[in-house]
Amino acid sequence: MSFPCYEVNTGGRIPTGLSGGFFIYDADGDEEILFVETNVIKLYGCDDHDDFMAYTKGSFEGMVHPDDLSRVRNQILTQTNFGEKRHDYLRYRILTKQGKIRYIEDFGHLLHQEGGKRFFYVFIVDVDRNEFFNRARNSLPEAEILSSNNDVDPLTGLFTMPVFSHRVQMLLTAPENRRKESAFIHFDIPNFKLYNEKYGFDHGDELLCAVSEAIREIFEDGTISRFSDDHFVVHVFRTGNDVIRGVESICKKMLMSDDVSKKVRVKSGIFIPDDGFSDVGLACDHARLACNSIKNRHDTHYCIYDDMLRERLRKQQYVIDHIDEAIEKEYVKVFYQPVIRVKSGEICGYEALVRWMDPDAGMLSPADFIETLEQFRLIHVLDAYVIRKVCEDYRSLVLQNEPVVPVSINISRLDFGLCDIFGIVESTRKKYDVPRNMIDLEITESALNKDDSLIKQECDKMREMGYHIWIDDFGSGYSSLNTVTDFNFDVLKLDLVFLKSFDKNPKTASLMTCIVDCAASMGVTALCEGVEKKEHFEFLKKIGCVRAQGYYFGKPMPLEETRSFIRENG
Ligand code: C2E
Ligand code: CA
Ligand code: CA
Hints:
Elements: E1 20-26, E2 33-36, H1 38-43, H2 49-56, H3 66-79, E3 87-95, E4 101-112, E5 118-127, H4 129-136, H5 139-147, H6 161-173, E6 183-188, H7 192-199, H8 201-218, E7 223-228, E8 231-236, H9 240-255, E9 267-271, H10 280-292, E10 302-304, H11 307-328, E11 332-341, E12 347-358, E13 362-364, H12 366-375, H13 379-399, E14 407-411, H14 415-418, H15 421-431, E15 439-444, H16 445-448, H17 453-465, E16 468-474, H18 481-486, E17 491-494, H19 496-502, H20 506-521, E18 525-528, H21 534-543, E19 547-549, H22 559-569
Parallel strand pairs: 9-10, 12-14, 14-15, 15-16, 16-17, 17-18, 18-19
Antiparallel strand pairs: 1-2, 1-5, 3-4, 4-5, 6-8, 6-9, 7-8, 11-12, 11-19, 12-13
Helix pairs in contact: 3-8, 7-8, 8-9, 11-12, 13-15, 19-20
């Protein structure tokens, strides 16, 4: 007897008119449907066997609602191929020929024929829509129990972390692979948690399946795993360039998705091990760090772990490890940069800007540590310290009968989530007996155009109490004019980019004139940053900009220097 063998004429009787039935399809290749009984044909709203085969294109793929297909495939794979058991149990939707959705419960069994052919014998039954929804929610844990297999992730059918690590470790140490080039790739969907909140967990799951499918398709020769949530890791024996091409096509595929809700920018980090490297855990970690390093970047979707990144991460680590000590020992200093009233040229305030004078690492500028502190959710520690130092400095000036002007303090958008930042401002101010009008609060524009009503409410509350709120960095990055109208504030700070472009582009002058006029008509004070030369200052005078700040008037300097500065400049 040769394989596969088929029997064409089946005997017996099948009851008709039931809302469930039986079919068989080839488990490999195109999932060709081999047998389908009339009850299933009717379930799909088809007239007869030919009609059904034409409608489904003769394949199991054509029987499942397209939106459920990737989940269904993964669940079947998880429960049968990867699982110990040979049966699967799941629910999905089907589309009838008339376009109606039906809710299906599916019991399948994978059977092997001698000779290696495999077939799915499946019984499906139409279930009530409500029951489907009530219970579909449980279908994942259920699938998990049914498959009772800890080697693969029940949602995507990919390997779990321990299995991945073990397999890759074996592959890397196999003598035939010793000299082969290989790479570790870490994939991440930025803001996946927000995605879940916005679209719901079911859609989140679908997205994870879509991403895992895209990865599978491109890196079919690799070992693929879902480590956790939205973190996928691949190991593959390929050259660096080939890996980059693969990573790019995955990113492109997701961005070009027909389904708007699945258009996401997948980020990836790549680690290419040297000869002789064999620690899988460390390799995965390097790939993850490379990926994390571009989380907030819009201009790139992959990053390779190299010496530059290693150095950057080392510096980051230094910042995280030493920030508490730097604050405690006061290596972190508050510098003050004068703000000038344009009409009179007099100092009308200072901006507090931090510097880190480290005995070992030398002087660190904010560019070296602010972003890191934000990334590691430590920025509020620094900002609370700056608030305290500014209040202390104010008190000591008053005690020495020195003149005082208001100081503006930079508040990070993240401070609002990390602590009660305005509560800290108020209590610190009280402790050092600083009047509220002596402290201004600078919040960057980008913090405000997120639909975050909390920050808006907090700012309104502070304004009612007598503080002034400034919008910082207006015009940098992705500006939204809505911020200006939606938000109540006192000072609009034009970013340095305006005067930088002013020198080159004549249109900038017109734009700045408009913004300054606009601020005036809204009753808001315009302040321009980055004044570096006389022409800048003259121009600001001409257009009626109220305040100015920049190296032309004075750089950020320690408190002691500001005193002599005031004596000299008034
Ligand atoms: P920022 O708030 O926009 O501060 C203005 C930056 O421009 C300062 O850089 C200042 O030194 C610089 N600058 C001032 N005048 C000129 C000029 O004429 N030309 C040029 N090219 N630059 C000028 P700095 O001090 O390095 O601070 C950089 C950023 O770090 C600040 O930007 C602010 O976003 C952040 N930062 C500084 N101190 C703090 C702080 O205490 N807390 C928080 N959260 N962020 C801070
Ligand atoms: Ca600022
Ligand atoms: Ca600024």
